[in-house]
Amino acid sequence: MSKSLHSVEYAALRQKLLAMRNAANLSQRELGRRLAVPASWVSKVETGERRMDLVEFSWFCSACGFDPAKAAREFLESTTPPFRQPKKGSGR
Prior knowledge:
By secondary structure, this protein is mainly α. The protein is 60% helix and 0% strand. The protein has helices at 8-23, 28-35, 39-47, 54-63, 68-79. The longest helix is centred in the first third of the chain and has 16 residues, at 8-23. It is globular, with a radius of gyration of 15 Å.
């Protein structure tokens, strides 16, 4: 399995985060204030320099006025390919 940070799906997630922030009419600085993080944190998440976990995704969505569960569901339904079983003999 390759690193998700470099996947097409993660690029789509970053685009979704940026779209949410823009829809909320928030600058990186203002979103950073709402999240109690530096604006550079927001920038690094949006550019893929920093990986975001599920809890941070939830905070990001909420700070932008979006329901995290709905945002995650919409993202997964639109971008995630079906789960692939590892090949036999791959040690997993």
